[in-house]
Amino acid sequence: MTTPFPPTFLWGGATAANQIEGAYDQDGKGLSVQDVLPRGIFGPRTDAPTPDNLKLQAIDFYHRYEDDLELLAAMGLRTFRFSVAWSRIFPHGDDAEPNEAGLAFYDRVVDTCLRLGMEPLVTISHYETPLALADKHDGWRSREMVDLYVRYARTLVERYRGRVKYWLTFNEINSLFHAPFMSAGIATPKDELTEADLYQAAHHELVASALATQVIHEVDPDAQVGCMVLAMPVYPLTPAPDDVVAAMHADHRNLFYGDVHVRGRYPGYVLRDLRERGIELDITDADREALTHTVDFVSFSYYMSICETAAPVEAGEGNIMGGVPNPHLPASEWGWQIDPQGLRVVLNQFWDRWQKPLFIVENGLGARDELVEVDGRLTVVDDYRIAYLRDHLVQVAEAVADGVEVMGYTPWGCIDLVSASTAQMSKRYGFVHVDRDDDGTGTLTRRTKASYDWYRQVIATDGASLQDG
């Protein structure tokens, strides 16, 4: 059987520190915004960590990383995406010296990945701004965050130079407008923030991302740096020109971040929007120079597409980035509409627009899994997850055949983790089941699911097995 996937394709899996590590208060780690978000993205923050926050223990990857990585490597993963917890390196974000215990932990994770044949794919900031910086500076609303982040990035690349080849600067940087506390550590309540506040915070992150890209290229010229955006194709709800224009504007709100990362400047449509809204950002000449340090590749998450219309309608429940439901698509239990062809659409759109290698670093189905006994062992027969991933990978293959340069595919939550959107364990994504429930009980025992063997075969055949149906 033939396959369009090249032998260099980086088949992998993706995670985030705050959703797997646990050990939130061990070995000198400081608090992050996640430690006071027990209800997920849109839930209210608490004054201090509370016992009902599953992320405080998560799946205890901090103590079980070696066994977990061996289990993932046995599936054939060629890359493992994880994030570094900023507050594990700088507990308050602005400490005079980094925390050696934190750096040493990621030494062990990186070295284990390499020993097992998995390239580390490291996200520098994945939704876990140090809580001290959120409270002291109001997160990324403050320009002071730029230098603190760049120093943090430099600390990482100097420590792991030559061992980490692929870096991502910010996870889903375009989520800032929708979840400002989680995404950007902005402590001011969302309903008190103006659009000017949010645009200025986004600008600070874009400058910091560009400066970190410059630093990484200087410290380790062999390393590659990517931005990471939440990809979501936008369809007009009807062929009416007003709906088409509404879809174009919605698309621009997402494409803006990639345009800056790849082109090194603000696009005209954003400048017009700012003018017409009367927003004047604090953009210095040094900022404009910084933005010229562009990324080597574009990485993105893909979970859903949305529709837009000029008519007044209610947004679809579960579509966390807005939009209206598509009447032609099914939805997951959590209301996220399922659109495999949208992945081919967005791959072609990004490739045509930017001509940079693309990396799908999140994709997957959150679902409730049930343990059953098969041949004398407990497992999960997750045919629904296999179908979802197969349908999406078939569309990736179509995009590769279209001529799109795709570096790799790391489905989200390759081992069950705490959901970012709901802070639940029951919303599972993984190929590996972790025995933990929403009430915090469970043994944390790991068990492979049916999808584990399926994905192992996909990797072993470089996608040729997808043709088997």
From TrEMBL:
<dbReference type="GO" id="GO:0008706">
    <property type="term" value="F:6-phospho-beta-glucosidase activity"/>
</dbReference>
<protein>
    <submittedName>
        <fullName>6-phospho-beta-glucosidase</fullName>
        <ecNumber>3.2.1.86</ecNumber>
    </submittedName>
</protein>
<feature type="active site" description="Nucleophile">
    <location>
        <position position="362"/>
    </location>
</feature>
<dbReference type="GO" id="GO:0005829">
    <property type="term" value="C:cytosol"/>
</dbReference>
<dbReference type="InterPro" id="IPR001360">
    <property type="entry name" value="Glyco_hydro_1"/>
</dbReference>
<keyword id="KW-0326">Glycosidase</keyword>
<keyword id="KW-0378">Hydrolase</keyword>
<dbReference type="GO" id="GO:0016052">
    <property type="term" value="P:carbohydrate catabolic process"/>
</dbReference>
<dbReference type="InterPro" id="IPR033132">
    <property type="entry name" value="GH_1_N_CS"/>
</dbReference>
<dbReference type="InterPro" id="IPR018120">
    <property type="entry name" value="Glyco_hydro_1_AS"/>
</dbReference>
<dbReference type="Pfam" id="PF00232">
    <property type="entry name" value="Glyco_hydro_1"/>
</dbReference>
<comment type="similarity">
    <text>Belongs to the glycosyl hydrolase 1 family.</text>
</comment>
<dbReference type="InterPro" id="IPR017853">
    <property type="entry name" value="GH"/>
</dbReference>
